[in-house]
Amino acid sequence: MKVPYSDDQNRLARFAKALGHPARIKILEILSNRGCCYSGNIADEFPIALSTLSQHLKELKTAGLIQGEINPPYIKYCIHKENWNIAKNLIDNFLAEKKDKYSPCDATS
Amino acid sequence: MKVPYSDDQNRLARFAKALGHPARIKILEILSNRGCCYSGNIADEFPIALSTLSQHLKELKTAGLIQGEINPPYIKYCIHKENWNIAKNLIDNFLAEKKDKYSPCDATS
DNA sequence: ATTATATTTCGTATTTTTGCGAAACACTAA
DNA sequence: TTAGTGTTTCGCAAAAATACGAAATATAAT
């Protein structure tokens, strides 16, 4: 069966999807602001069940945007540098590419 | 009831979510490559039912990334310049912000 | 060994997304 | 008015996402 999308299209969509929930945006911002390597008491920062938080962390992890380090008694998370940059490049490139390509289109709805 | 997420977090997640499907990435690339203002025969470019395509276009439209112009006998779509730039700024800013903030974290899984 | 702490997995319910074909709609051309 | 073209909406079904509490897991401290 035919594959209708390129690898880059799939990768880009995958990263974007991981960013597609405000809880995950917030989690990434928290991880970022703490410098890095933060644990699950992210839940103190906003009302969310630990199990729900865990699911979002898993999402971010499987998408490759964060990594977890088992560092007892905590599990610490941080942004995954390499993949983050890959995502950044894909997204930046995608967004920039369109920058000046639209023609004058007066549609408003 | 309390609102756990900021406006920017919600906006960013909303845009990202709209980009979170390869079909929509592809649609945006097609719109971009055609210069702009293109109609629904996007469906020629890859295997997708017209009704499904219509749904994805609606998604992109409600997210604000594209706009449709009723220009009989076609309905033409193009990238929504203002919102696209808003999305770009939000996303760029978000992605860049994290760039150098992670601390050395040797986690690999 | 027991207890306490941090986190994940399980089970479940609800909602949303995705996809398609059929039918409806809107507008043009005959 | 009728037929034709492009697009959307409807109805449906299947899959995925979201959220939570309860139970399980893992490790540290006692």
Helix/sheet category of chain A: mainly alpha
Biggest sheet record of chain A: 2 strands, antiparallel
Most extensive interface: A-B, 59 and 59 residues
**Please, what is the average pLDDT of chain A?**
85
Share of helix of chain A, binned: 40-55%
Structure description:
- 2 copies of one chain form a homodimer.
- Chain A contains 4 helices and 2 strands.
- Chain A has a single domain, classed as Arc Repressor Mutant, subunit A, CATH 1.10.10.
- The mean pLDDT of chain A is 85.
- The termini of chain A are far apart.
- With 109 residues, the first copy, chain A, is mostly helical.
- Helix content of chain A is 50%, strand content 11%.
- The longest helix of chain A is centred in the last third of the chain and has 17 residues, at 81-97.
- The first copy, chain A, has a two-stranded antiparallel sheet with strand order 1-2.
- Chain A has helices at 7-18, 22-33, 50-63, 81-97; strands spanning 66-71, 74-79.
- Chains A and B meet through helix 1, helix 2, strand 1, strand 2 and helix 4 of A and helix 1, helix 2, strand 1, strand 2 and helix 4 of B.
- The first copy, chain A, binds a DNA duplex (30 and 30 nucleotides) through residues 21, 23, 39-41, 48-59, 70, 72-75.
Task: Describe the protein's topology.
The structure is a homodimer of 109-residue chains.
Chain A: H1 7-18, H2 22-33, H3 50-63, E1 66-71, E2 74-79, H4 81-97
Antiparallel strand pairs in A: 1-2
The structure holds a DNA duplex (30 and 30 nucleotides).
